[in-house]
From TrEMBL:
Species whose genome carries this gene: Poecilia reticulata
Region Disordered, annotated ranges: 1-31
Protein name (database record): Vacuolar protein sorting-associated protein 41 homolog
A molecular function GO annotation: zinc ion binding
Lineage, opening ranks: Eukaryota, Metazoa, Chordata, Craniata, Vertebrata
Domain annotation RING-type: ranges: 783-831
Residues in CHCR repeats: 560-704
Function comment: Plays a role in vesicle-mediated protein trafficking to lysosomal compartments including the endocytic membrane transport pathways.
Membrane association type: Peripheral membrane protein
Family statement: Belongs to the VPS41 family.
Protein's cellular compartments: Cytoplasm, Cytosol; Early endosome membrane; Endosome membrane; Late endosome membrane
Keyword Transmembrane listed: no
PANTHER family listed in its UniProt record: VACUOLAR PROTEIN SORTING VPS41, VACUOLAR PROTEIN SORTING-ASSOCIATED PROTEIN 41 HOMOLOG
Biased segments, Acidic residues type: 15-26
Annotated GO biological process: cellular response to starvation; endosomal vesicle fusion; macroautophagy; protein targeting to vacuole
Length: 846
């Protein structure tokens, strides 16, 4: 049965603390349940006095002197009638095979649970505590301690007899004892002692803080966190003690170990029990004001204080009748289970698992976090299902009218469950929110029945044309019956035949249905941008042969590019015929054709002259320059009719009538710069003479000539012909420019001369170095005169060989006389052929 803690209303009408009544947003750390089954029956007629916990079972002692062995669920498996009065303490060894029991009437029993052999003794005073050696089941560790007025150690010797030894006495009643490894800790009226069993030494004495409290009413709580860390709780004080090894140099007569208090702090309530939880502490508190419920807190110890992590008020049975000494806290180290024992109730506290975490999130309506937690830990959760949590989240969002978020979650939660998908769609239809879920419906490999998609499309068609068009674009055509939707759209178009959204959507539906001609008609009618893509994708060129004008009117650039890219499908001649009645469109087509290839449309070049003149004069002159197929006479006639001077000048010059072209520039354009540029291009002396003659009586023209002809015509010819007394604007600047240009030319010539001389000298030196190198003469060389081997067969006799720089070789006696200049000889071959030095090398290579 689930045990309720804080925020629980009791039958008496009482509540917990006011702070606990509020709906806290902080998640509890522990969950609780009452240990029932056999325990409930036992506590109805008896009362719990003590309990000890093993990983495998529990041992419960009662006020009527009975000991029950219980399984983890609380069912009684064994019963021992030990005494007729209260059982004070039960101790188990680590194996769980041996038990030690002491009672208020002085009885002590230590025996094996499976043998019943062991120690059975009765003393004349109450025995409050008993503790077995943790390794009691092993033959060499048969030791246990008991405590009343004295702390006694019992040890079985080799004769199988029990030997008793007094470890401590004289400081009042022993109220608690805990044995861990080789360390025994016990509490009496004055404080807590620790005994090192391995060295037989007592190593510390931790004094009690509040001596005014009665030890029997507020007993000391002891708990070993590990083999060297002891936690002490007494009254409202908690101390954490660490047992450490002493440095050998400091020992002298001191014990091998010492105790350091690493944390000490006060609490608000009286301590009934302690247990470790990782690096935190689980503490059972008693609030003596108004006999309030006991509290189970988790605290984080600090050196001189503590931090509260969580605090739960426990509604145990008959808590109003209990005192601090009536509560105990035991724990199972293996599973982090904490048992709160009171006379009439035993409550088990557990760490909350992922299922409990999800329960709390769902209770707080934090569905998003609950779903995330379930997804992350789906392998570990046992009571929850990810999909069910998701459905609860969707229901919550729908209840809060957050329909878009609910629809978005469907995609994640419903997954591939077709039935759930269809149920959700019908639910959204019922609440009038089909639009919200439409964009999240599955549309890939997983698909719903076509009727579902058609239902949503019909709903959009009634209320939202734009949304309908969006779904048609986004949804694959295979999701629904295309013909049924086409019919529905046509029905709506009868009421609104010019609606562009419906027409565009209808064209898309026709495209899905492969009725491209219908789609093309609609796109052209609407002048839709996708018409060109449709033509390309489905190769509809045969369908547009009679619609070229419409395409050009819609977008000239795209239409022309498409036609030119597909000349093999729609010929140039076909396009020209179609555009014949629309010359402005024909010009655009032929102009782009000419730009791509100057020769493809050559038979239309004559017609293009008139089209350029009419619609695009800026490109007429470039066309005339680049075309080699247009008739010049026809072009000249058109240009003269329209008085296109620049084009006429170009045509005249191209036809060879340069004088007439220059005359038009001077007379009609009156542009001396252009006339000079024209004369430079033609590079004809007679043109320069005509230009000077025409300009000699026009001062501005003379200035222009003076500034520009210096590099083509001797300026003196122009200056001599200028009449005396004629005023010429900027004459001084023009003369200065002429002189400057002349000086510049002189400098350039001098610079070129220096470079030429330097290069010649460098080459001469290089040739000299080359000619001064040694020349190899061997048996392979012959005399160029007698054609015999240049070297004699008998090298011992003197001989003379002449080698010229041209690499021709002669016997000295084979050379002719040196001639008029004594000592000067020439190669006969090179002199005869009038070749320079080095020619012989080339000849030899041949």
């Amino acid at each position: 049965s689930v045990f309720l803690f804080f925020q629980e209303r009791q039958q008496s009408g009482e509540f917990t603390d006011e702070s606990e009544e509020e709906d806290s947003e902080e998640e509890p750390k522990l969950k609780y349940e009452r240990l029932s089954n056999g325990v409930s029956e036992i506590l109805q007629s008896d009362a719990a006095s003590c309990m000890t916990v093993h990983d495998k079972f529990l041992a419960l002692g009662t006020h009527f002197g009975k000991v029950f062995l219980l399984d983890i669920q609380g069912n009684a498996t064994q019963k021992y009638d030990v005494s007729s009065v209260k059982i004070n303490q039960i101790s188990l060894d680590e194996s769980g095979e041996n038990v030690g029991i002491c009672s208020e009437d002085g009885k002590v029993q230590v025996f094996g649970l499976y043998t019943r052999e062991g120690f059975h003794e009765s003393f004349d005073c109450p025995v409050k505590v008993v503790a077995l050696h943790p390794q009691f089941s092993r033959s060499n560790y048969k030791q246990f301690v008991t405590g009343g007025n004295k702390l006694l150690l019992y040890e079985r010797n080799w004769l199988n007899r029990w030997k008793m030894q007094v470890l401590h006495e004289g400081e009042g009643t022993i109220t608690n004892v805990k044995w861990r490894a080789n360390l025994i800790a016990w509490a009496n009226n004055l404080g807590v002692k620790i005994y090192d069993f391995s060295t037989k030494q007592r190593i510390t004495n931790v004094l009690r803080d509040n001596v005014s409290l009665r030890p029997d009413m507020y007993p000391c709580s002891l708990c070993w966190k590990d083999d060297t860390t002891l936690i002490i709780g007494w009254g409202t004080s908690i101390k954490i003690c660490a047992v450490k090894e002493r440095n050998p140099t400091e020992m002298r007569d001191l014990p091998n170990r010492y105790v350091e208090i690493v944390s000490a702090f006060e609490t608000e309530f009286f301590i009934c029990g302690l247990a470790p939880l990782a690096d935190q502490l689980v503490t059972l508190f008693f609030d003596e004001e108004d006999r309030a419920r006991p509290r189970l807190d988790i605290i984080q110890p600090l050196p001189e204080s503590c931090e509260e992590i969580s605090s739960d008020a426990l509604s145990v049975r008959f808590y109003q009748d209990n005192e601090c000494r009536d509560y105990r806290l035991e724990h199972s180290e293996g599973e982090s289970l904490f048992y709160i024992i009171s006379p009439k109730d035993i409550v088990v506290a557990k760490e909350r698992d992922q299922d409990d975490h999800i329960d709390w999130l769902l209770e707080k309506k934090k569905y998003e976090e609950a779903l995330m937690a379930a997804e992350i830990s789906f392998k570990n959760i046992k009571r929850h299902d990810v999909q069910k949590i998701g459905m609860a989240y969707i229901n919550h969002l729908v209840e809060n009218r957050d329909y878009d978020a609910a629809a978005r979650k469907c995609q994640k939660v419903l997954g591939k469950n077709m039935e759930l998908w269809e149920n959700e769609v019908y639910r959204f239809k019922t609440i009038g929110q089909l639009k919200a879920i439409s964009q999240y419906l599955p549309r890939g490999d997983l698909r719903l029945r076509p009727a579902i998609y058609e239902m949503i499309l019909h709903d959009f068609l009634k209320t939202d044309y734009e949304g309908f068009a969006t779904l048609i674009r986004e949804w694959p055509g295979e999701l629904y019956n295309n013909m049924a939707i086409v019919q529905a759209v046509n029905d709506h178009l009868k009421k609104d035949p010019t609606n562009s959204t419906l027409l565009t959507t209808l064209a898309e539906l026709y495209t899905y249905d492969q009725r491209y001609d219908r789609a093309l008609e609609i796109y052209l009618r609407l002048r839709h941008k996708d018409v060109y893509q449709l033509i390309h994708r489905h190769n509809l060129f045969s369908s547009i042969e009679d619609k070229i004008v419409l395409l050009m009117e819609f977008d000239k650039e795209k239409a022309v590019d498409m036609l030119l890219d597909n000349e093999d499908k729609i010929s140039i001649d076909k396009v020209v015929v179609e555009l014949d009645r629309r010359p402005e469109l024909l010009h655009v087509y032929l102009h782009k054709l000419f730009k791509r290839d100057h020769h493809k449309g050559q038979k239309y070049h004559e017609r293009q002259i008139g089209l350029y003149a009419e619609y695009d004069r800026p490109n007429l002159l470039p066309f005339l320059r680049d075309s080699t197929h247009c008739p010049l006479e026809k072009a000249l006639e058109i240009c003269q009719q329209r008085n296109f001077v620049e084009e006429t000048v170009f045509l005249l010059s191209r036809m060879g009538n340069c004088r007439r072209a220059l005359q038009m520039i001077m007379e009609e354009l009156e542009d001396v710069d252009k006339a000079i540029e024209f004369a430079k291009e033609q590079d004809d002396g007679e043109l320069w003479e005509d230009l000077i003659s025409y300009s000699i009586d026009k001062p501005p023209f003379i200035t222009g000539l003076l500034n520009n002809i210096g590099t083509h015509v001797d300026p003196i010819l122009l200056i001599k012909r200028i009449k005396e007394g004629m005023e010429i604007p900027n004459l001084r600047d023009s003369l200065v420019k002429i002189l400057h240009d002349y000086n510049l030319q002189i400098l350039l010539r001098e610079g070129c001369k220096k470079i030429l001389v330097a290069d010649s000298l460098s080459l001469l030196k290089k040739m000299h170095r080359t000619q001064m190198r040694g020349v190899r003469v061997d048996e392979g060389n012959i005399c160029e005169s007698c054609h015999s081997t240049i070297l004699p067969s008998d090298m011992a006799q003197p001989f003379s060989v002449v080698v010229f720089h041209c690499r021709h070789m002669f016997h000295k006696e084979c050379l002719p006389s040196s001639g008029t200049i004594p000592g000067l000889q020439f190669c006969n071959i090179c002199s005869a052929k009038r070749r320079g030095p080095g020619s012989g090398i080339l000849e030899m290579k041949k």
